Amino acid sequence: MTPAHSRRASPLVLWRSYGFGLLLLALACLMAIKPAQAQLRVDISGTGATQYPVAIADFAVDDAHGRALAEVIRADLTRTGQFRLISAAGSGLNVDSPIAHDDWRAKGADFIAYGSIVRGNDGRYDVRYRLADTVKKGQLDGVAFSGTEQELRRVAHQIADRIYEKITGVRGVFSTRIAYVLKQGATYELQVADADGQNPQVALRSREPIISPAWSPDGSKLAYVSFESGKPVVYVHTLATSARVPVANFKGNNSAPGWSPDGTQLAVALTRDGLSQIYIVSAAGGSNMKRVTRSPGIDTEPSFTPDGRSIIFTSDRSGGPQIYQTGLDGGDARRLTFNGGYNISPRISPDGSTLLYVARRDGAFRIASLNLSSGSENLLTDGRDDQSPSFAPNGMQVLYAAIQNGRSVLAGVSSDGRVRQTLSVLNGEIREPTWGPFTR
């Protein structure tokens, strides 16, 4: 058989592949997580409806590390499109400095973040940060961190999370992780990286494509589909140890895993009884499973709703692929999408209010969102072949795969479609992205 993925498959090919099991993933080579070599470049366009003016001063005392810390924080906030950075160059602030609120207000900053970083005798770095509100003329936040030199980037993400939440009222996602498949030459790697695409680590390597990675709710595991035994099998892979368990190894195709909110079960698509249908299996493995759907069409791509009471999935029971919702006991499924004749790859927002999916409109595959209360649809992207949408755990951003200059790249868009970013790997192609959960 000629490899089906010598080039990137279209959503139509993926739909048929999920339904009839034409994707072959062979000879997977598992290993402990280790650093990856590919480097990413980030390009950002657009601004949010509201932009908060904030100054981020270089952290004092250790100049080199203080500058690097502040640069990561600035980059995190800039990527959201919700902040307008005010220069704090030459401010000379340290964590104990008094803040001239009126002077910063005159410079246009409603908020100023500043701090100090000091290397202790044990080689660890003590980081103290403050956030001042220049309008209310008071301290809005202050906290201390400790970490090794290798952990300072994580500390910067944690500070950016706090700044984001204190100013917007929404929890920040800069400390979370993402997973995606990187294709370099004839090799495919399942990688885990920081939310900004930095610090990539290899979790799984294969000479054939890797598909359907899905995060466990606690962020410690990834489920995926492997064909190494000669047929598609769903595995659960523990990232810290690379230990894995086959959780769906039934007759026919086993595909498209989606975690239950409590992490104990997976919804999967199986062809054990004929056409692809939705089943529930234990995340710990074993032979027990429960059938959810019984339709004359192909049912696939299941995902649990946040309350764990129902499943969203794709089905062609009405002709073309559309998105449906059903209870865990099956029964009549409710159709959710009616615009256009082709809607696939459903994902639900963390609060359960919005549906995310790939919609074919005017011959192009775009990422769309649907307000489940009003039925209003919003096309978030304008690419020709956008795929694999995934919500950030705060619901404010969307991760997806796009085509840029003929290559597959990792892309992001704000949930209102106003701010877009592209993470381009310098020596490979990225696909199948999924955003990890909050872990602390």
TrEMBL record:
It is found in: Periplasm. The keyword Signal applies. It comes from the Bacteria. GO terms for biological process: cell division; protein import. Keywords: Cell cycle, Cell division, Periplasm, Signal. GO terms for cellular component: periplasmic space. SUPFAM superfamilies: TolB, N-terminal domain, Tricorn protease N-terminal domain. Pfam families: PD40 (PF07676), TolB_N (PF04052). Residues 40-139 form the TolB N-terminal domain. InterPro entries: 6-blade_b-propeller_TolB-like, Tol-Pal_TolB, TolB_N, WD40. Signal peptide: none annotated. Its main location: periplasm. The Tol-Pal system is composed of five core proteins: the inner membrane proteins TolA, TolQ and TolR, the periplasmic protein TolB and the outer membrane protein Pal. They form a network linking the inner and outer membranes and the peptidoglycan layer. Belongs to the TolB family. NCBIfam families: propeller_TolB. Part of the Tol-Pal system, which plays a role in outer membrane invagination during cell division and is important for maintaining outer membrane integrity. This is Tol-Pal system protein TolB. It comes from Achromobacter insuavis.
